[in-house]
């Protein structure tokens, strides 16, 4: 049941901007509680490189069963050209990353493999630089 809800939510988030992302290649910041995209930012080479570095530092999978929190935000980053990811869990090209920022927890990210299966990994290191590049400061959590 949780998996179905997660996949439905993920599909909704991915599909809401497929056309826009294809034509404009924008980063989208999605507020989970508001259930809407709150900001769009063009993908720059610096943003792409920062996300690529986050992916390359992957050393562990995200362990929780329910990955999408009730609060927080997600950042969808289209990667064109695609970035090659290679770790003990996944090998292949990734053309989109969704970074998930739950309140009061360390962020993690989601990528889909070529068979469209979700893979969740912990983010190693800080994400402050990326948030500064996006000029996004999340609201303080309760």
Explain this structure to me?
This protein is α+β, with helices and mostly antiparallel strands. The protein has one domain (2-133): 2-Layer Sandwich (Dna Ligase, domain 1), CATH 3.30.1490. Helices cover 27% and strands 34% of the residues. It has a six-stranded antiparallel β-sheet with strand order 2-1-3-4-5-6, sandwiched between helices. A hairpin with a 4-residue loop joins strand 1 and strand 2. The longest helix is centred in the first third of the chain and has 14 residues, at 2-15.
Can you summarize this structure?
This protein is 27% helix and 34% strand.
N/C terminus separation: 28 Å
CATH class: Alpha Beta
Question: What is the N-to-C succession of helices and strands?
Answer: HHEEHEEEEH
Residue-averaged pLDDT, rounded? 83
Level of helix content? 25-40%
Question: How is the biggest beta sheet arranged?
Answer: 6 strands, antiparallel
Low-confidence stretches: 1-8, 15-23
Structural class comes to alpha+beta
Helical segment count: 4
From the alpha-carbon coordinates, what is the Rg to the nearest angstrom? 14 Å
Query: Biggest sheet, strands in spatial order?
Result: 2-1-3-4-5-6
What form results from the Cα inertia axes?
globular
How many beta strands in the DSSP annotation? 6
Beta strand %: 25-35%
Q: Say what the CATH topology is.
A: Dna Ligase, domain 1
Number of structural domains: 1
Supply the CATH architecture.
Answer: 2-Layer Sandwich
